[in-house]
Amino acid sequence: MFTCYLIYANSLGVIAGSYAMQQRYDSCLAYYQPYIAAMREAVRDEFRVQTERERMLVWNNVKDHVAEITDLIAELNDGQVSGRHEASASDRHEASPYIALLAPLSYDAQLLSKGILLNSAIEFSRVLQAQGDPQLAAAYAQLKANDDELSRLRQHTPDAADTERILQLTQHSQALQLQLSRGCAEYADFTSYIAYSWRDVQQKLGPSDVAIEFAVTSKTMLRSDQRLVALVLTRDMAAPQAVVVCDGEQLQQMETDVRLFDTPQAARTIWGPLMPWLKDRQRLFFSADGSLHRIGIEYLPVDGRPLSEQMEVYRLSSTKVLCYRQPQQQPLSAALFGAIDYGRTEHLSADERSALMALRGSKRGFAPLEKTRAEVDTIGAMLRTAGMTAVETFTGAKASREAFTALSDTRIGLLHISTHGDYKEEHGQTDSESMSRSLLAFAGANSGADGLVTAADIARMNLRQCQLAVLSACQTALGQMGDDGVFGLQRGFKNAGVAALLMSLKPVYDEHTAMLMAAFYRHMLGGCSKREALVRAQQELRQQGHTDARYWAVFILLDAL
């Protein structure tokens, strides 16, 4: 049952949406302005004591109203709110004040929406039980009991005694939440990440920084095509600004364009409208949405050079990641998987086997990957030379599903997996089904599911000490586009608590991937940041003659601050 706070917030959204349909924008804004703040608090209040299933139910009932704010920006920009297909200059002039007022609300809507279910698998009764503190476990149990009683008391008009009891329970619950936040980092992070606003993000920006939340609008009755909206924020802005970048058809064309990184057209489409805010900036923090999750836009050539080599570009799950407490310590332990024995391959022809050995992905079976042996051996040697003593390498039959899943609840700090990856997309599949169809192959994978690890399996693990997971395989960044992000391996690892990910957008080649990974670790262990290490590794590949983007522009870093 939803609390009165959520019912109130949802009512504000319904009223605002109704006014928007009537083109009464002053009244619409009067309700949208308190709506996002109320929804943020209501969702946080609901989520802290709910199971994963209950959280998903709550969000599915409110997400459409949250998305309507950004949709309205696109409609005002297009002039379609007046029933016209083309917006005249006067239309745009009339709409611009409303777009300016909607932009900060839209930014906050994106901060709330993106990754809202990313940590939905966390159930704090289990976390606190694993932490082994009976006082915290008892506090959480009491907090849930208080919430149940508050829900019961609020189902009818309270009398004086009920009102007094509600006040007592609310104060007690606030004290319990403070106790839990101080004693359990996971609880503190979980309850904080929902509450961040654009003002919190702005405080983390330096004078030469720019943050961009990309948002793809919904299809509506007035607009059959989607729009890509960029919500831009700098330290000196009074509020975020909204820019309609391009339409959905252009994004879809980019996904399949084999010359994407060889011509300036895509860069002009995506980054061209944003150049006034990028000029003279040193750092760009952006969060993708929709098709941008499948496109390495940070590598698009601007004036002949990848944007990632002209400024520091960070791809984030959401720009609210800037507000998180970032671990400063170096990882003390590492687990490396490679040279895996996938089992028998007699079902493959000689040609199929040869082709599969060249790529780290498969639809029919898993052939040996020859270069992964040197890859993990080289990386392991580098890590030990750098002073990391707890480095364990899993190869052959030992690189098993069991060995990987046994890393849950350990203090593993660095994870590297050189293997076959796959994403089996099917029409009409649900978000949860896509998590079961995104997978990594481990020992014995050719014999069945016992050698496969899915994104759903990973999401149930606890890898919260892991600062970097390198998924050196095909298509490890892909998955189904859900309402709050990508449902695939990246979601699995982020749900498990991994801080940063290096993963691929396309099929990757065994030999070139091994070269890229060796260069990446060499630069990172030599003192470069993760971002700079990847940029230098990409440059090395091109300098060695591997200039085709399918060799150097397929891996992306996520949340690598």
Structure in words:
Helix content is 46%, strand content 16%. It has helices at 4-21, 25-47, 52-78, 89-113, 124-131, 134-153, 160-183, 185-193, 198-203, 248-256, 265-270, 275-278, 350-358, 371-385, 401-405, 431-436, 455-459, 489-495, 510-525, 530-543, 549-552, and strands at residues 209-216, 227-234, 241-247, 283-287, 301-302, 305-306, 312-316, 333-340, 390-396, 414-418, 421-423, 438-441, 452-454, 468-472, 479-482, 485-488, 500-504, 555-558. It has a six-stranded mixed beta sheet, sandwiched between helices. The chain has a five-stranded mixed beta sheet with strand order 3-2-1-4-7. Strands 11-12-13 form a three-stranded antiparallel beta sheet. A hairpin with a 2-residue loop joins strand 15 (479-482) and strand 16 (485-488).
**Would you identify the regions where 5 or more consecutive residues have pLDDT less than 50?**
81-87
Q: Which of globular, elongated, flat, extended, rod-shaped describes the shape?
A: globular
Helicity, in percent?
Answer: 40-55%
How would you state the average pLDDT, rounded?
86
- Oligomerization: single chain
What class would the helix/strand composition place it in?
Answer: alpha/beta
Largest sheet: 6 strands, mixed
